Amino acid sequence: MKITIKKIIFLINFILVFQANAQQTQQTTTTNSPQKVSLNATEQKRLLKKMYYNSGALKETKQMVGKTLDGSWKHFYENGQVHKEGQFCNGKENGLWKTYTKTGVVTKIEQFQNGVEQGEWKAYHTNGSIAVKGSFVNGQRQGKWNVYTTEGLLEKIVTFQNDMDTHIAFVTKEQISTYHTTNIAIQ
Question: pTM, whole model, 2 decimals?
């Protein structure tokens, strides 16, 4: 009887210690060496939410803190292929975002900072070759944007200032034709 009671007490203590430890740390593995990583209050409240199509296929995964998007976000085509993925920080897009075709070919790579496009921006043809390459500064297209053919040849260069095109240069095998514009916004 004493042995059984001791076993029960030991088991209860083991469970309580295990639960307390699980609430304070998260086990991660990196190259065969487990580490304990302390989680702050925000990380402990982060939830992974999943949404599904009527067919049962996964439609979206998102990390949230309370009702705010915060962490990784992915949207899927019904065939299971990732459609778009990126990160949120306090409800705003942040960092690198990628968009894909239904077959998994990257169609766009963009960067955000606090919900505003910032940095290099690339679009791709469906064959995977680069279509457009440029940069955003504070949500506005700035500088030279290169436009390429599906074969990967430079077709034109559009120069932007404050999201308005100021100069267009068409590139052909024979010559480069340039045009100055009158600050017409290209959508």
Answer: 0.70
Residue 101 has pLDDT above 50, yes or no: yes
Q: Which domains does the chain have, with CATH numbers?
A: 44-184 (3.90.930)
Residue 143 backbone phi and psi in degrees, to 5: 75, -160
Return the closest-CA partner of residue 101 out of 82, 73, 118, 114: 82
Show the CA angle centred on residue 38, arms to residues 34 and 39, nearest 5°.
Answer: 125
Over the range 129-154, which residues count as b (16 or more CB within 10 Å of their CB) and which as e? ebbbbbbbeeeebeeebbbbeeeeeb
Give the C-alpha separation, 35 to 179, whole Å. Answer: 59
Using alpha carbons, select from 96, 100, 104 the residue that is nearest to residue 120.
96
CA angle 158–160–162, rounded 5-degree value: 165
Dist CA 48 CA 73 (whole Å): 9
